[in-house]
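Final report, closing paragraph on structural work. Over the funding period we assembled a curated collection of sequence-structure pairs, and we close with a single example.
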Amino acid sequence: MTERLRPVEVWKVSEDGIRRGPDQVVTEEPLEIRLTAGGRTHRVGITMRTPGGDFELAAGLLFAERVIRRREDVLAIRYCTDPGVEQRFNVVTVDLAPWVQPEVGHLRTHLATAACGVCGKATLEALTMQGCVPR
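Its predicted structure, as stored:
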């Protein structure tokens, strides 16, 4: 699992002067959201997040965008286990119930509004092709 905090070395400034010391910063990483419905996989897009609560984030986003309307619309939420995927904990797949027929095209437009340029990409591979390498 990806860590929420990362140790760093910082310069600490106080009334006693300046000294170097350890600290921790909150991490931010991309999360690719995929849906499975009707035997097909749909790549919804990528959003940035602090790791942790990934399943809740994916479900909340799909609910807010009206892809799902109630808890029963979701059969399972899981991390990606596809062979060859290095970003396992940065890819979440939401399995939808058979009666849910998602319209996901609008999600890419909504996710593309972030200024950082990561949100709105459909896959983590798309970031890599642009020279961004998620950790």
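The mean pLDDT is 80. The longest strand covers residues 5-14. We thank the funder for supporting this effort.
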